[in-house]
Structures are given as structure tokens and as C-alpha cells.
Design a protein that fits this description.
The protein has three domains: about 375 residues, no CATH class; about 100 residues, Transcription Regulator spoIIAA (2-Layer Sandwich); about 200 residues, Beta-carbonic Anhydrase, Chain A (3-Layer(aba) Sandwich). The protein has 28 helices and 16 strands. Helix 4 packs antiparallel against helix 10. The protein starts with 16 loop residues before the first helix and ends in an 11-residue tail after the last strand. One of its GO terms (biological process) is transmembrane transport.
């Protein structure tokens, strides 16, 4: 892996730093380029053989891919050259048009790639389903294996994969000894190479296999077909030839090669990005670089060029830092061809075929099969493989894309519909997207419900179209006219409710936000259900709403919460003291769940003096404090006040004469009232609240001081085992503020308190200051 700090391709000029950086990068790029060169040579020869092209065409494509695509492409560490993914297409194209015309097709395909890159639509290729891409590669792999097994066995490949499969049994019975030995030995070396010691594996497996079997065949004098290389490889006298007719098929071949080469290069570039942490690929520039390379390769008699994942991954793993590695690998191949081309004539064709069998088999990646199976795309994968193998690559890919589109449409329009009896009647659940395509199933379910029964229609739908709304509305009216009851319970967006109100049942640019039921008041979601009770005594309404809320919990939430309810562990981190106001929901304010908060609530979030908590009515609160601190070992104690607090208003305006218990309880707020009258006003984010809200701020600090009178809290704080925090919740803005003892201001919770240090999060700038250990509020103050 390389780091972003290592990639310094565009270093600023000046004082020799750039030259030093280039030399440092070359120290890594040169060795990496040599490793990639050793991998590329045998693969290029094998791909040319499998494509039915002149052997030298593979080397030309490797040279041009390394130099041109490496210099102009948008992926810094991708290595390009002839690819196994195009062998099937190239074999068919060469058979139909001949080699010279195929080179003209390659030139025009490159020009089309350049135009696609300039139009900046390269990322559109990423919209193709991964199942189609993996299926295409697997189909190519199966096709290569079926063809090259015949060569390994000393025979010749047939005209199609199906024919290769049908003729394979006969070929197995009529194997040629020497060629078969060479091919099988090549495959065996490649399969076993990964199990050898790391020091041995520094030599690329393909190079080791080809060299070993070539030396063996020469030393033992085997008579086997070998690579045919021109006497002077560099004597290129070649001009691509355009056909005399058949322009539609010619154009289709251009588009096919351009699209397949583009998709393979772009997907390879994306895969290479995942292997390193350097600069990300510019996919449009990569497409332009690949197009330029194909124009150059086709013009001088080379195969089409694509980004190749095998060479690219080798490049990254070998420590390459810049695009110089890919360019150098192309130059090493050129040097090899110029100086040592004669050695290529010793390589047995069966050895290259064995290499291709191994490469093709690896294209059928079982990890990819598991992945598409997990995502439900196995039909797309299998159809694509079958199409590529039995028809041709382009048709197979198009069939795969079509099946993927149908599956996507089905998932978008799918709706799960089922009905069951419950205590109150019938319960019908509809999930997914409810469209006209779901009407037959929906109609059958609804018509099967007895007339006159009570029905709860639960809609958990992402979309409701006009036709489905009409059916639901008409059925509801018909059922209710027959004496039945229909309660429509919409979970999520209220599509049906909007339709009943005469609004469109389609998406708008900004859909209305709907509060989740775990936070929305009972009245909100029960009104949407149509189950809110009419005006009746308050007690009955509350009980009925509560019972419905419990039923909702049982139906929707219990199974989700159960894994977080550990019956044997109770280890809350925070003691949370707050007001009994029904608008304060501690777990929502703190984004916490079961087991996080030990909560104490009372009128005014008050803490009685320690002397009064030993016995009497306040002993329960004192016991809760001691249990939280001494037994549960909480790490922090929070006192949370809030705006518009009724207790604070009662302190300022006086308690009612007929509420003696309330008057007695509010005496515990007298320290806060004293602070309010004698201390300067407190601020909340630069603003100074007045009246009862100002008193609520002083009350929070007074209660923190009261807490320190408790011996258990004083001991824990002295040991550094506990922290006391003041909190204020502004109901109007729904904002939480924490008290900062350094500034004496209640600051937004965007400023986070960690341990004994307060950190400001303003604008990404961080300032830290130690929080004093002495009490936030002096005792008695």
C-alpha cells in the first residue's frame, strides 16, 4: 500500500526539491516496473494467441499501453495492455474482418473513447450492475478455458465455446503427449506458486512457469508447436485497412470494442483506487488516455488496450508511487523485443495456453458469486455468463443489462401484501411501493375480508400511485357503507392521507418531513391513524392513548429493542437529573438508549439539601443519588434545566394557595432564587434570557452546588471518578447547551466536554483549556 504523502507527481519547482523527489520516487518506480514487465510479457503473448492475432500484436499493445496510456491516463498507478476480457470479441472480429481491418476498428474504437472522455460521461459506466460485469468476466473466463484446453491437450480450438465444450471429451481421449505435458506442467506451476516461500514468490508466477517449461522443452528436445515471431519485430510496415462494404457490422464492432474496453478500463481504475491511498483516478482523463493508446496501437498493428487489473495490482503491491512505473514497464518490453525477440521462438504454444487456462479460470471468481448471491443478483450473473458463452459477448452483456433492469423495476414496484386476523378484527399490512402493478394482488386480499368487520390497514409504503389510491379509497368507502370500520395507519410518509385531502400522491421536490413515532406525540400519529378519541375526560384520553402506544411498541419496537436489554447488566454511565416536564425526553436529548441513563425527574430538577434527605419524603431522592454513585459507579452527573419551566414561573409569581405540597417542594429552589437576585445574569450563546428562563439557568448551577454537599459525590469527585455538568434545553429552538465554567456561559452542545477538558468545535478550530477542579459554584452560593 502507498500513502497519499508518497504521491508527489506534480511537485512545485525550486531549489532542487523537485529533483530530489523525482529521484526518491524512481527508487520505488524502477523496481516495480521491472516486476510488472516480467508479468506482462507472457500474458501479452498468451492473449495474442487466444485472440487469433499475430503474436507480436500482443507485445505492441503492451508497449503502447504502458507508454501512451500510462502517460496520458487519469489513473496514476493503473497499467494498461492487451486484456483477457477482449479475447472473445477480438477472435470473432478477426475471423469476420481479417487482421488489417480489425486494426482499423481498433483505431476508430480509440477515437470513440477519446470522444466519450471529452464528453465527461465516463462515470456513467459505473451505473452498470456489478453482476453484469462479473458475469461478463466469468463468461470470458469460461470461453478462454474451453478454447485453450484444446491447445493444452495438443489440438486446436473450435469455432465456438459450445463446439469446444462438445469436442472436449474426444480431445481428452486423443491428447498429444509432449504438448499436454508442457501445458499441464505450466498449470501445475501456476497453481502451486502461491504456496512457495515468500522469497521464491518474488519472481512472478507466470514468468517462472513459462521460463521453466520452455527450458525443459528445449533441453529435452520436445517437438511441440512454438511461438512464431517475425525475424525483425521492429520493422513495422503496416497500414490499417478499411472494408469495402458491410459498414453496419464494421460500425457495430467499433462500438462494441470501444464500450467493452472502456468499461473494463474504468472498473479496473476504480479497483486500483481501492488498493492505495494516493490520488484518485480521473475517469474522464483515463478514458482519453485509453483512447489515445488504442489509436496508436491499432495504427501500428497492435491489439486493443485496456486497463488490466492483474498488472495494475502487481504495480501497486510492488511499491510503485507514480505513473513512471507504468511507462517504464512499456519501455522494458520494447527493449526486450528489440534485443531478445529470438528467445520468444522457443516458447511452446501449449505453455501459453496453460497460462491462459489459469487466467481464464481466475476470472470465474467465487467471491464475486457469493457477493451477487448476497445481493439477490445471481440471476443477472448467470444469464450474463450463459449469454456470453453460448451467443457472444455483446449479446450476453446486453441480455444481462436487460435482466438487471427488470429486476430493478420489480424491486422498485414490489409491494408485500398480507392479511391476518387479530383481536379487533382484521389487520392488513402493505409494504414497499404500491402501484398499479400491485392492484390484482391487493384487490384479491381486500375482497377476501368479511364485510362489516373492523380492519386496520397498515401502509408502510415508499410510493402510492393514483390507481392504487383509487382502489384503496373506493374499497374503504364500500367497506364502511356495509357497516365495517377501516382504520388507515400510515407508517412513514402519509401518501393516502394526502390523497384523501386532494393533494397529489406523487413525490415533490421536497417531501414533507414526518416525525418518527418514537418521538412524535401520541396525538400526532394517532390522528394520522384516525384513532384519536373525541372530546372525552382527559384521564380516559390519556389512558387510551397510552394503551395504543404500548400496543404500537409491542408491534413495532419490542423486537428491535430486545437485543439491547441485557437482563443481567445495569451499568449506566450518567445520572441525569431533570424536570418532570413532559416535553423533556432525556434519551432523545442525549441520543442514548437502554442502559445509558439513570434518570431522576422531579418538579424543577431540584436537589434537596443533604441534611433533609436522610429521612422523610426526600429520602427517596437521596437513596437514588447514593445508589447511582456508590453502587452503579456512574461517571457523570447532569442537572438539566429548561426554558418555559412551570416551576421557575411559580417561584417568581407565587404558588397557588391550594398547592401546599408544591410550595413545600419548591423551597429546595431557594438557593437558585437567591443566585438569580444577587448574581449577574447568565448568558446562553451570547444571549441573555430574562425572567423564568434566567432563573432556570441559575437554578442549574445552584443544584450542582447542592450535589457537592453529598459525601458520596464529594468523595467520587475528589478521586476524579465523576464529573458534574450543567445543561439547559431551550424548548423554542430545540437546542441543548452545556455550562462552560471557564467563561461562565452556557454554550452550544457543539462544544464537547471530554474528561476534564473543554474543547471548542467552532469552525473546525480547536481551543482547549483545563476545567478547574474547584467547585463550579462555591458552597453555599
Amino acid at each position: 500500500m502507498i500513502t497519499a504523502a508518497r504521491e508527489r507527481e506534480h511537485a512545485p519547482p525550486g531549489d532542487g526539491a523537485r529533483g530530489q523527489r523525482i529521484l526518491e520516487n524512481l527508487r520505488h518506480d524502477v523496481p516495480a516496473s521491472l516486476v510488472v514487465f516480467l508479468v506482462a510479457v507472457p500474458l501479452s503473448l498468451g492473449i495474442a494467441l487466444a485472440s487469433g492475432a499475430p503474436i507480436v500484436a500482443g507485445l505492441i499493445a503492451a508497449i503502447v499501453g504502458g507508454v501512451v496510456a500510462g502517460a496520458l491516463g487519469g489513473s496514476v498507478l493503473q497499467v494498461s495492455g492487451p486484456a483477457a476480457g477482449l479475447t472473445v470479441i477480438m477472435a470473432e472480429t478477426i475471423a469476420e474482418f481479417g487482421w488489417a481491418t480489425t486494426c482499423a476498428i481498433t483505431v476508430l474504437a480509440g477515437a470513440l473513447q477519446v470522444l466519450l472522455g471529452l464528453s465527461r460521461i465516463a462515470r456513467a459506466a459505473l451505473a452498470i450492475s456489478p453482476a453484469v460485469v462479473h458475469g461478463m468476466l466469468a463468461g470470458i473466463g469460461v470461453t478462454i478455458v474451453l478454447a485453450q484446453l484444446h491447445v493444452v491437450l495438443g489440438g486446436s480450438a473450435q469455432s465456438s465455446p459450445v463446439q469446444n465444450l462438445l469436442q472436449l471429451p474426444r480431445q481428452l481421449l486423443d491428447a498429444h503427449g509432449a504438448a499436454t505435458l508442457v501445458g499441464v506442467l505450466t498449470i501445475a506451476i501456476l497453481l502451486g506458486w502461491g504456496r512457495l516461500p515468500a522469497a521464491v514468490r518474488k519472481v512472478p508466477g507466470p514468468l517462472a512457469a513459462i521460463v521453466a517449461v520452455t527450458v525443459l522443452s528445449v533441453v529435452t528436445g520436445m517437438t511441440v508447436p512454438r511461438v512464431d515471431v517475425p525475424a525483425n519485430v521492429l520493422d513495422i510496415r503496416f497500414v490499417p485497412l478499411f472494408p469495402d462494404g458491410g459498414w453496419f457490422d464494421f460500425g457495430l464492432a467499433v462500438v462494441t470494442i470501444a464500450l467493452v474496453a472502456s468499461v473494463e478500463s474504468l472498473l479496473s481504475a476504480v479497483a486500483v483506487d481501492k488498493m492505495h491511498s494516493g490520488p484518485r483516478a480521473d475517469l474522464n482523463r483515463e478514458l482519453i488516455g485509453q483512447g489515445a493508446a488504442n489509436m496508436a496501437s491499432g495504427a501500428i498493428g497492435g491489439l486493443p488496450v485496456t486497463g488490466v487489473i492483474v498488472r495494475s495490482s502487481t504495480n501497486v503491491q510492488s511499491g510503485a508511487r507514480t505513473r513512471a512505473s507504468a511507462i517504464l514497464h512499456g519501455l522494458w518490453i520494447l527493449l526486450f523485443v528489440a534485443v531478445l525477440a529470438g528467445l520468444l521462438r522457443n516458447i511452446p504454444l501449449a505453455a501459453l495456453a496453460g497460462l491462459l487456462v489459469h487466467v481464464g479460470a481466475r476470472l470465474v471468481n467465487f467471491a464475486h458469486i457469493k457477493d451477487v448471491l448476497r445481493h439477490g443478483d445471481l440471476p443477472v450473473y448467470l444469464v450474463t455468463v450463459l449469454g456470453v458463452v453460448t451467443i457472444d459477448l455483446l449479446t450476453g452483456v446486453l441480455i444481462g443489462i436487460g435482466v438487471a433492469a427488470l429486476l430493478m423495476l420489480r424491486r422498485l414496484l414490489w409491494s408485500g401484501i398480507h392479511a391476518e386476523r387479530d383481536e379487533d378484527g382484521w389487520h392488513v399490512v402493505v409494504e414497499g411501493a404500491l402501484s398499479a402493478l400491485s392492484i390484482p394482488r391487493l384487490s384479491a386480499v381486500l375482497n377476501g375480508i368479511p364485510r362489516g368487520s373492523r380492519v386496520t390497514l397498515e401502509l408502510v409504503v415508499d410510493y402510492l400511485d393514483h390507481a392504487a389510491f383509487d382502489l384503496l379509497s373506493a374499497w374503504q368507502q364500500s367497506h364502511e357503507k356495509a357497516g365495517g370500520t377501516v382504520v388507515v395507519d400510515e407508517v412513514g410518509h402519509p401518501w393516502f392521507e394526502r390523497g384523501k385531502a386532494g393533494e397529489p400522491t406523487v413525490h415533490k421536490r421536497r417531501a414533507r418531513q414526518v416525525a418518527p413515532r418514537w418521538f412524535a406525540p401520541w396525538s400526532e400519529w394517532q390522528r394520522a391513524q384516525g384513532t384519536a378519541l373525541p372530546a372525552v375526560p382527559a384521564q380516559r384520553t390519556r389512558e387510551s392513548s397510552m394503551r395504543r402506544g404500548v400496543a404500537e411498541f409491542e408491534r413495532r419496537t419490542a423486537d428491535l429493542v430486545r437485543p439491547y436489554l441485557d437482563a443481567d447488566r445495569h451499568e449506566p454511565q450518567t445520572l441525569f437529573i431533570t424536570c418532570g416536564d413532559a416535553r423533556i425526553v432525556p434519551n432523545v436529548l442525549t441520543s442514548s438508549g437502554p442502559g445509558d441513563l439513570f434518570t431522576m425527574r422531579n418538579i424543577g430538577n431540584l436537589v434537596p439539601a443533604h441534611a433533609t434527605c436522610a429521612e422523610g419524603a426526600e429520602s427517596s431522592l437521596g437513596a437514588s443519588l447514593e445508589f447511582a454513585v456508590d453502587v452503579l459507579k456512574v461517571r457523570e452527573v447532569v442537572v438539566c434545566g429548561h426554558s418555559s419551566c412551570g416551576a421557575m414561573k411559580a417561584l417568581l409569581s407565587g404558588t397557588p394557595d391550594d398547592a401546599p405540597a408544591l410550595r413545600s417542594w419548591l423551597r429546595h429552589a431557594e438557593p437558585g432564587l437567591e443566585r438569580y437576585r444577587t448574581r449577574p445574569p447568565l448568558q446562553v450563546e451570547g444571549e441573555t434570557p430574562a425572567g423564568a428562563d434566567q432563573l432556570a439557568l441559575h437554578n442549574v448551577l445552584a443544584q450542582l452546588a447542592r450535589l457537592r454537599e453529598y459525601p458520596s459525590i464529594a468523595r467520587a469527585e475528589a478521586r476524579g471518578d465523576i464529573e458534574l455538568l450543567g445543561m439547559y434545553f431551550d424548548l423554542g429552538s430545540a437546542r441543548v447547551h452545556l455550562y462552560d465554567p471557564e467563561t461562565g456561559v452556557f454554550r452550544s452542545a457543539g462544544s464537547r466536554i471530554t474528561g476534564r477538558r473543554l474543547t471548542s468545535g467552532d469552525g473546525g478550530r480547536s481551543t482547549e483549556a483545563p476545567v478547574p477542579v474547584e467547585p463550579v459554584v462555591p458552597p453555599g452560593g
